[in-house]
């Protein structure tokens, strides 16, 4: 526990230092560049041009510009140190780009209306990384996740959680290969411990449940029906010729002891989602229906790419479930 607390405090210190550095960098950029405040744009011209603009609330944009909005390639710097570099479409983050957090974390890949959506790679400040498919800020589809503690997962994701088939490798040498549901081991799969023991069979919410076989390193095995509480357990122990195990071995020890070293790491949490970072374009306001509109002449009317209807709360980058002693998140 003390090691975990020490690691957490070290990470928090690192984040605070990097945030201070990022804010100082943003301030130096704003003050060093001699650029005028945003002026009135000619609406409807359709001409794409290159601009450098200090925006309302002190944000800064440099890049291609059309009809009063970013359009093409450009860089946007928020005063809190967040930054986006990449493609824009009529004021929206759209296409390929890179979003950077003050902590040093980054996401590089595809965006749709401000959301991480498509193929992309998140790299956290603590060493976490995920490379794969995203849908509206959530890991969804095939992806590879490297956790800050040395664990590794490769397989299918759904709505931010491991779901489908996947392989999880713990840094201690244990590994599981099989089915997942809602971030937990569910269905059929095999868990192999670093000492050579293994369990192959049915799982439910991170615990052996149903038919399965536990094999010892010496070749002895226990086969039968498993359950978390032991009430419905029924099976037989079959010793090998060289067995050193106690013939009265209690299979409940698998749930109470063996799974203690098989916790799923929760991963790194984003401080804020890119879709929550709203660009402050000149003469724009957010109306009650979640849309941004130009206040001056009403000629420009564009949907907000951060409508409350589609907002997704900041989620853990190793989205996980809480539980007791099974294969679950490490709290």
UniProtKB/TrEMBL annotation:
Keywords: Cell projection, Cilium, Cytoplasm, Cytoskeleton, Flagellum, Repeat
Keyword Cytoplasm (UniProt): yes
Signal peptide residue numbers: none
Record flagged with keyword Cytoplasm: yes
Region of interest (Disordered), ranges: 276-331
Ranges annotated as biased composition (Basic and acidic residues): 286-297
Major subcellular site: other
SUPFAM superfamilies: Histone H3 K4-specific methyltransferase SET7/9 N-terminal domain
Gene Ontology molecular function, alphabetical: kinase activity
GO CC entries: membrane
Localization (cell): Cell projection, Cilium, Flagellum; Cytoplasm, Cytoskeleton, Cilium axoneme
Polar residues bias locations: 303-317
Listed name of the protein: Phosphatidylinositol 4-phosphate 5-kinase 4
């Amino acid at each position: 526990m003390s090691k975990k607390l020490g690691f957490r405090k070290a990470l928090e210190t690192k984040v605070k230092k990097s945030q201070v550095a990022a804010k100082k960098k943003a301030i130096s950029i704003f003050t060093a560049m001699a650029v005028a405040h945003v002026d009135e744009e000619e609406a409807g011209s359709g001409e794409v041009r290159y601009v450098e603009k200090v925006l309302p609330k002190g944000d800064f944009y440099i890049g291609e510009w059309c009809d009063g909005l970013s359009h093409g390639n450009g860089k946007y710097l928020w005063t809190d140190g967040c930054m986006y570099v990449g493609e824009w479409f009529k004021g929206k983050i759209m296409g390929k780009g890179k979003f950077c957090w003050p902590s040093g974390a980054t996401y590089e890949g595809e965006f749709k209306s401000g959301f991480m959506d498509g193929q992309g790679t998140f790299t956290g400040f603590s060493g976490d990384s995920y490379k794969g498919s995203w849908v509206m800020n959530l890991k969804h589809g095939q992806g590879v996740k490297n956790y800050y503690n040395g664990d590794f997962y490769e397989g299918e994701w759904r709505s931010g959680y491991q779901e489908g088939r996947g392989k999880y490798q713990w840094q201690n040498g244990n590994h599981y290969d099989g089915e997942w549901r809602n971030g937990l081991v569910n269905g059929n799969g095999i868990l192999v411990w670093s000492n050579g023991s293994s369990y192959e069979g049915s799982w439910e919410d991170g615990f052996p449940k149903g038919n399965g076989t536990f094999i010892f390193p010496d070749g002895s095995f226990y086969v039968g029906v498993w359950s978390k509480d032991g009430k419905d357990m029924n099976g037989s122990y079959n010793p090998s010729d060289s067995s050193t195990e106690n013939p009265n071995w209690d299979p409940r020890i698998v749930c109470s002891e063996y799974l203690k070293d098989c916790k799923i790491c929760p991963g790194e949490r984003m401080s804020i989602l890119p879709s929550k970072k709203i660009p402050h374009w000149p003469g724009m306001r957010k109306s009650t229906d979640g849309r941004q509109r130009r206040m001056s002449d009403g000629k420009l009317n564009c949907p907000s790419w951060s409508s409350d209807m589609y907002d997704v709360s900041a989620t853990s980058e190793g989205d996980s479930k809480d539980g007791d002693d099974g294969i679950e998140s490490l709290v």
